[in-house]
Predict the structure.
Amino acid sequence: MELKNNTILITGGTSGFGYLFASKLMALGNTVIITGRNPAKLEETKIQLPGVHIFQSDVSNPASITQLFEQVTKQFPELNMLINNAGEMRKINLQDASIDLLDITREIDINLSGPIRMVQQFLPHLKTKKNAAIMNVTSGIALVPFPISPVYGATKSGLRSYTKSLRVQLKNTGIKVFELVAPGSGTPLNDKFINDPGFNAGMLMDPEKLIDVAIVGLMKNNYEIYPGMARMMNVMSRLAPGLLFAQMVKMTEKAMAVTKK
Ligand SMILES: NC(=O)c1ccc[n+]([C@@H]2O[C@H](COP(=O)([O-])OP(=O)(O)OC[C@H]3O[C@@H](n4cnc5c(N)ncnc54)[C@H](OP(=O)(O)O)[C@@H]3O)[C@@H](O)[C@H]2O)c1
């Protein structure tokens, strides 16, 4: 697709991938709207990226999505692209009895229900546009479980499955459906893992490079985009899934052994 003169809504645009998408897509000549929960981070981003449009919105809250839709489509009726990027990744010890029943599914509300509800809300509007697109940000962890983040993995596998179905259902519309299968990358999302034994920070992809690959993928209409290690993970998940999973188990066991001490 042509990445110029679009009006693009990015969830979670105050940090990491969302921020870089916003900055690079604006530089290409697009109007960019970002969301986030924290108003101070949104204001700070507006200072760093003059011209970006900000809306406070929590993707895990359906009422907040409806309000966002009403405000954004009123102010930006030309909106033609949605990037479902907002996400959270936690380490969860499933034997920790103190985690309550609402909190245990928090990542599902943000990473899976969030994008599904965003699509449901914005789809009728996007269908009125000639060149429209949806990009969902999944993960290499959609291809193989990472047992230290059990709920996160479930959300990304779920979002990958949903995205494939969405692409089929929208085949006869003008809406292109992309999946960015992102590998581990040096954003604040990974700060909590950096000191874990077995975690190799050197394996993290430079987020700038990752988003450059994503943008080229969008331009070339590559509907599934696998930057860096994600490509190898995709191949391994088919040819040697046990080997790939064993690596994830090893990393989890090292980190959990320390946590238990
Ligand atoms: N970094 C990686 O290694 C990696 C790898 C694969 C996939 N991913 C995926 O890439 C996406 C972006 O991650 P990142 O690494 O850029 O993370 P990040 O630096 O932590 O940024 C997350 C962004 O999402 C926003 N956000 C979080 N919860 C939200 C909610 N409920 N509603 C609206 N906004 C919310 C945050 O702002 P507020 O906190 O202010 O809301 C922030 O702007 C996520 O979906 C993540 O799962 C990341």
User: Anything to note?
Assistant: The longest helix spans residues 106-126. Residues 11-18, 35-38, 41, 58-60, 85-89, 110-111, 137, 139, 182, 184-185, 187-190 surround NAP (CB under 6 Å). The longest strand covers residues 132-139. Strands lie at 7-10, 31-36, 53-56, 81-84, 132-139, 175-182, 224-225.
